[in-house]
Amino acid sequence: MMYEPTLESVRAHVVPDWFHDAKLGIFIHWGLYSVPGWAPTTGPLHEVVAKEGWQGWFARNPYAEWYMNSLRVPGSPTASYHAQHFGADFPYERFAETFNRDTSSWDPSQWADLFRRAGARYVVLTTKHHDGFLLWPSSRPNPFREGYHASRDLVGDLTGAVRDAGLRMGLYYSGGLDWTFNDRVIADIIDLFMGVPQQPEYVEYASAHWKELIDRYQPSVLWNDIGYPAAANLPELFSYYYNTVPEGVINDRFTQAPVGDGPPDPAAIMQAIAQGMLPAPPHFDFRTPEYAVFPDIKAEKWESCRGLGYSFGYNRNETVDDMLSPAELVRSFVDIVSKNGNLLINVGPMGDGTIPTEQAERLEALGAWLAVNGEAIYGSRPWTRAEGTTDSGVGVRFTRKGSDLYAILLDTPQQPQVTLTGLTIPAGTGVTLFGYGDIAAVQHDSGLTVTLPSPLADAPAHTIKIVGGAA
Ligand code: GLC
Fold this sequence. Notes:
single chain; alpha/beta; six-stranded antiparallel β-sheet
């Protein structure tokens, strides 16, 4: 099918099975902000905004990738850190010297191998974040900053390594913020929308970049961020993309806020953000709630993105106490999958490309769990309900594949007899426990009682497969 540069045509695009089946992607925030790699560990997005409001968020922004903006918020902890470690007048752009020096010996295959071991099926790399620095040698360099790009094709090198490891490659681009085109300090939510560069030069620059990234790397995911200039012709860009990468998917952050008649409606924005999302653009393949999950199954495809801690960019100030534990990571992932979501879990490498041990350990733990339980995850779809419990209060999440049902216990029950409350299955169906084999199952009015091996080795979650149970 060839797409026309019209909304009607691109809206005919169907989310491909690979994206539904993949379930797990790795997000990578890497750039100049990885050199200082510092932010206050204020807390998770929605909790901080609920407690301190958006002004509190931007003044003590835990997103280390926002270093360049946080630096310019008067009295911010980042401004003090910068003055203390680099001198108050040290220009952010000069981190490029260290970044380009330190990335010269970076080996992308080490990352790709880790992501494959983690069980990921795709990767999304930041090619340009809000600071405007480019991670590829673009034919459209930044017009305001000489040499403001990586001296190596970091995007190309990682794309090659990721594909060699059998994974798909997606690309992130901050279409909605570029502090080299619009250096408005983001100190409150309204600034986020008024900070979108709207100049014709930027419209042309950003769209030329997306086309160049599509031509050079054929990314499987277009992961735009914040929004997009109002004057840009998105149906033209989207049809160009789908005609070049038919199996590609586009996220929901190409939002074009009208500028003619003044600032966008804060109420509508706040309502969308309360759900962890931006107002939806006219076309997208999947939603991207941030540091947020949904209470129940969503018909539309979604992908939850978050850091392992409170930041996407590397933050040397974070400890394991600020991070998801390996068990929490697995359980949150299972919850997301049971509700028709993917998880795009982020790593924040250091300036030289080193992935901090505590981040790598969490990916390895997720991979080890998937090595035993992956059948219940990859290629699965939501059942008629996502959640359940056992008689002892252990949370259960359901997935299905065809007529087979998977009941995933979100903890290790302490007694062998466990009743899956309210679950009724057809008589004579086979019941197995991954990692063990067949287990006994008895149907009662109150639910299905299974007998687990005793002792049962501790694990973040355990999968019970019920053959034909989803029928
Ligand atoms: C937000 C943050 C940005 C991050 C993105 C990832 O838009 O501003 O720093 O890259 O979320 O979801």
